[in-house]
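From the shared-data thread, chain only:
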Amino acid sequence: MQNLRNLIHFALFFAKKDIKSRFAGSFLGVFWMFVQPICFIIIYFFVFSTVLKIRLSTGTGTQSFLVFLLTGLFPWMSFHEGCMRAATTVIENAEAVKKIPFPLESLPLGVIISAACMHLTALILFVIGYSIYLWVNNHVLISITVLFLPLVLCLQLLATLGIGLFLASICTYLRDLIQVFNLLFQVWFYATPIVYPLYMVPQKLQPFIKMNPLTGLIEIYRDVILKGRLTFTPYKLWSIIFICLVLWLGVTIFKRLKTGFADVL
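Structure, as C-alpha cells:
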C-alpha cells in the first residue's frame, strides 16, 4: 500500500512539473490548456464544416464529419502523445534515475497523466460545445450515456500506461526503436477508423481493421458521445481484453528491466 502511495505521489509530482514546464514563461500560463483546444476546434470547424462540408450517414450517430472526427481524434492524440513521451521519459530523467531512489514507474505514468490532462481539457470542451449545438439546433439534450465517459477514459489511460511502460522499458536499452515506433504509430493512426467511418472500409478489409484494438476503443467513445447506446460487439470486447493484456505485459516487462536502467543511461 505504501508503494502504491509513493507511486501516485511521484507520478502526480512529475505530471505537475511537466504541465508547468509546457507553459513556463508564457503570459497566459496554464490558460493555454483551454485556448489551444478552442482554436483547434475552430480551425477544424472552418475546414470540415464550412469548406469541405463532408456529410456522413446516420449510422455514425451524427451527420457532421467534424463531430465524428473530433470524437476519435482527441482520444488518439492523448494516447499517442502519452505513449511516445513515456518511451523517452527514463532517458530524459537519467540523472534522477541514477541518483535518486523513487518508483521509476512514476516517470512514464507522470507524462501519461500530463498528456491526458491536456487532451481531456479539449475533449471536455468539445462535449460541452456539442451539447450546446444539439440544444440550439435540435432542442435535444446529449445522451445520458455520456456519463460513462470517465470509464472509457480509464480504459484509454490503462492502454496508454501498458504500452507506455513497454516502450519506456525497451527504448531505454535500444534508443533507435523510438524512431521505429514513431513510424508505426503513423501507420496505426490510419489503420484506426478516426478520419473515416468503419462502414467505408471495404468488407474484405473490415476484419483486419476490427483486429486493431484501438478500433473498439474509438467506437466505444462514439457510442457514448454520439450514438447514446453501448453495444459490446466482439471487436469492442477484444479491445478491452487487449488493454488488460498489454497493461499486464507493460508492468511485467518494466519491472524486469528497470533494475538495469542506471547501467545503460
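The chain has a mean pLDDT of 85.
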